[in-house]
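Why do we bother with a discrete structure alphabet at all? Because it lets us treat a fold like text: something you can write down, compare, and reason about line by line. To make this less abstract, here is a complete entry for Cytoplasmic protein. Read it the way you would read a sentence in a foreign language you are learning: slowly, and without expecting to understand everything at once.
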Amino acid sequence: MEKAQLIEIANTVMPFGKYKGRMLIDLPEEYLLWFARKDEFPAGRLGELMAFTLLIKSEGLTHLVQPLKRH
């Protein structure tokens, strides 16, 4: 995983669903796990970033991404 991907995860807004408007890094792990269990991450870049976000959260590395958020 590259720094550019981490920056993108920190600053990409969830475009739909229950957590629409939240940054990907701020999505609850349970929400991401729901997509993973159903094997239904969205197609394309958003799905890739959501899967990376789940990996970051499940490994306890959220603290590395939070400082990369734009304010």
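What the structure line is telling us, in plain words: The radius of gyration is 11 Å. Residues 45-58 form the longest helix (14 residues).
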